Amino acid sequence: MRKEEWLETLKGKTVKGLLELLKDVRINSMSKTPEEIRMLIEEISKRHLWEADKIEFEYLRDMPVEPKVEVEVEKETERKVPGSIYEHLGASTYSKSDFDSNKYPALKTAIGIINIIGWIVLVVSFLGFIAALSLTRNLWIGLAVLFSGFLVFLLLLAYGNMLQIMVDMEYNIRKMSNEMCRNSSKTRTQ
Q: Are 110 and 175 members of one domain?
């Protein structure tokens, strides 16, 4: 692989993808020339790394490796996110390694539980409305039960959506940070 092609391949990868590649070179003995390893380390050094990524990078960077036969590295596949906020932000593609579906499992579980409880409250308030009408024959009590149940339903759904927005914001901020680091490294090399 030519030097320019290798550099373009590295620039097209996310921080996570670059660290995985360095891990393959250092631990799994993926064959790369010393020059390609140096370029990989330089590319990772240019990017903004989270603390955990910094620790992993420093560990992998300092590991010795013996050069072997050159192997082609496939470019990460990209997928289109149709009709999403990413298109409106100008980031219409994401790589498979950008999104970690196992991130924040407790928070995602809490979001699901809150939404389910909200729907249960709505159904119970409707049943309470019917029960209040049949038992007390007072429309105002039934409407109060229905309105208060609907209000609690809306608050629970809003809270669940707010938590989901926070998870999405973390992902978007991380993606924008990686993109800004990639763009600033392109500016420095020109």
A: yes
* Domains held by the chain: number: 2
Is the residue at 62 inside a domain? yes
Query: Which candidate, 185, 180, 187, 186, places its Cα nearest to that of 45?
Result: 185
Residue holding tokens 């989270």?
Answer: 50
pLDDT digits (tens, 9 = 90+) for 129-180: 999 999 988 889 999 999 999 999 999 999 999 998 988 888 888 888 877 8
pTM for the predicted model, two decimal places: 0.44
Same domain, 127 and 70: no
Q: What is the four-CA torsion angle of 20, 34, 1, 53, rounded to 10 degrees?
A: 20
pLDDT of residue 180: 80
Is the alpha carbon torsion for 109, 114, 119, 120 positive or negative? positive
State which residues form the domain around 54. 3-76
Per mean pLDDT, which of 11-15, 30-34, 146-150 is the most reliable? Answer: 146-150
Tell me whether residue 10 is exposed, middle or buried, using C-beta atoms within 10 angstroms of its C-beta: 0 to 12, 13 to 18, 19 or more.
buried
